[in-house]
Amino acid sequence: MTDQIQRFLFERTNVRGEIVTLERAFGEVLDRHDYPPAVNHLLGELLAAVALLTDTVKLDGTLSLEVRGQGALALLMAESNPGGELRAIARLAEDAAIPSENAAFRELVGEGQIMITLDPTDGHRYQGIVALEQDSLAGCLAAYFDQSEQLPTRLWLAADGQRAGGLLLQRLPDESRNLDADAWERTVHLADTVKDAELLGLEPLEVLRRLYHEETVRVFDPKALRFSCTCSRERMASGLMTLGEQELREVLVEQGGIETQCHFCHARYHFTVPEVEAMLASEETPPTLH
Asked: What architecture does CATH give domain 4-227?
């Protein structure tokens, strides 16, 4: 099974969809971290969801999903871009009890919120926030679209310790293209029958065939997905500058340099005293460091 996302639509309706399968990219995320099984499960769902939403909103930039909770799982975050690059991370609350293998979504996160951030290459950054009021990640994201975008949207997400997958349906506002008044209700009802094992174990076209063999579905070419971290020396330098001059100088005195690590991919970056001094002396964006 390859890592890919595939767009489709139902002919003569205003209903479109996306279906995603992830194996290698998900595995690369898990290989870099040691999370409990229940956290791995939810992280896989989030990774599938961010891929689905990125392809749905047609953003030229980065889309991130961030779940902030007050339970054992304090943070869950995934990012994606139109190039099919994905990364994700989780963080347990300090002194949190390790959740059971079968812990449900609300057991892990408790109360909290989901933030959806659109960061375009050109233009202004946008962030939408929705409270965690549903019993699943898919339900919370559907609520976000209902409240913020007013676009009826449903998601079905699945993950295990090796694979992640998901299905998204969305009803577009253009009713002039819809010649089938029952299309939305019918396609959602059929999608509700999909099993986790199908999303995780079958090729996307086979899943669509099983669900919609009586519908006229137009399927577009799939797009490949992969794990890729967007960290860089320049971005790490910019992040260090947010600590402030006093704190940076204290670290330099204590350590004779600064060592920092990307939380997503664990890449390490070392900054020497002269490099940090040059950054502090510059009133503009930190220069490219070599």
From this structure: 3-Layer(bab) Sandwich (3.55)
